[in-house]
Q: What sequence folds into this?
C-alpha cells in the first residue's frame, strides 16, 4: 500500500532535502512548497515543488490540496518577515485577524498555524516523527566532553534558557564562567552567535533548549555544521541541547566538524541542572 503523500513546507538549511530524500528512499510520494527567499531553490531540480511566498498561505493550502497531500511538515529555518514584507493574502489576513498572533512569540504563532492547517484537513507531523534519528540523545556525541567548569555553565544556561523560553522569546543562551553573556531573541541563534566577539576564545557554552510547552511538531531546537562554524569563530567550547527535543542536522558532518574544532556537543535532560557536579 502506497504511503500517504507528504507535503514539506521548506525553509532554509538542509532539513527539507534530508526529509525529501528520505521519502525517495522509502518510495513515499512527496511535494515541496519552497518559501521564496528562504528555501534552497535547487530543490526544484530534484523534487516536485512550487515556489511560493510566505504570505500566500491560501495558495500554499490550495497547492497542497491539489497535490493530494495528507501529511504536512515544516522543515528548515524561516526568517520572520515584517507585516509589510509578508503581504498577506486573504487566508493569511483572516488567520492573523482571528488569532492575533503576528507579534507573539514563535511558539504561540506556530501552534495557532498548525491548528488552522489541521482545520483544513492536513495531518501536521514533526521532522522527528519522520526521522527519529535526527534527535540528539542524552549523551556526549563528540570526542571532546565538558569539564566540571563547563558543566556548571550548562546548569546555569539551562535555567536561563528555560526562563527565556517560558516567555516565548528564544531557545538559546551563551554562558561563560558561570555568567549568561548573551540571550537569543526572535532573530534566532545565528544572529545571537553573530553578535559575539570574533575569535576571543573565552570558552563559553551555547545552550539550546526546547521551550516549556513547546509545540514539538515545529521549530524544535536544531544545530548543524554552520552552528559549529559560528561557535568556532566566536571561540566557544561546546554546545548543550535538550536531549530528545533537539535536532542534529547532517549529524556525521556536524560531529566531524566539532571534533576537528575541539568543540563538544552534549544532549542533556533539562533536569540536569539539579544534578551534582562531578569532574
A:
Amino acid at each position: 500500500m502506497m504511503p500517504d503523500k507528504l507535503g514539506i513546507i521548506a525553509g532554509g538549511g538542509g532539513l527539507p532535502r534530508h526529509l525529501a530524500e528520505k521519502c525517495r528512499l522509502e518510495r513515499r510520494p512527496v511535494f515541496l512548497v519552497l518559501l521564496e527567499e528562504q528555501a534552497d531553490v535547487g530543490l526544484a531540480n530534484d523534487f516536485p515543488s512550487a515556489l511560493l511566498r510566505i504570505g500566500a498561505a491560501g495558495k500554499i493550502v490550495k497547492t497542497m490540496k491539489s497535490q493530494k497531500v495528507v501529511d504536512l511538515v515544516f522543515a528548515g529555518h524561516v526568517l520572520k518577515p515584517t507585516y509589510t514584507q509578508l503581504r498577506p493574502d486573504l487566508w493569511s489576513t483572516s488567520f492573523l485577524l482571528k488569532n492575533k498572533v503576528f507579534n507573539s512569540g514563535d511558539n504561540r504563532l506556530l501552534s495557532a498555524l498548525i491548528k488552522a492547517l489541521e482545520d483544513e484537513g492536513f495531518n501536521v507531523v514533526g521532522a522527528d516523527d519522520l526521522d527519529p534519528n535526527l534527535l540528539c540523545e542524552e549523551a556526549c556525541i563528540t570526542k571532546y566532553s565538558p569539564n566540571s567548569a563547563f558543566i556548571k555553565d550548562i546548569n546555569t544556561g539551562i535555567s536561563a534558557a528555560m526562563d527565556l523560553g517560558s516567555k516565548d522569546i528564544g531557545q538559546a543562551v551563551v554562558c561563560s564562567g558561570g555568567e549568561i553573556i548573551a540571550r537569543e531573541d526572535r532573530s534566532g541563534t545565528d544572529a545571537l552567535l553573530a553578535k559575539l566577539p570574533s575569535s576571543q576564545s573565552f570558552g563559553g557554552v551555547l545552550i539550546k533548549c526546547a521551550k516549556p510547552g513547546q509545540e514539538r511538531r515545529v521549530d524544535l531546537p536544531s544545530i548543524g555544521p554552520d552552528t559549529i562554524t559560528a561557535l568556532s569563530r566566536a571561540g566557544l567550547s561546546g554546545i548543550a541541547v535538550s536531549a530528545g527535543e533537539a535536532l542534529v542536522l547532517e549529524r556525521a558532518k556536524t560531529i566531524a566538524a566539532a571534533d576537528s574544532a575541539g568543540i563538544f556537543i552534549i544532549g542533556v535532560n533539562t533536569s540536569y541542572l539539579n544534578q551534582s557536579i562531578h569532574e
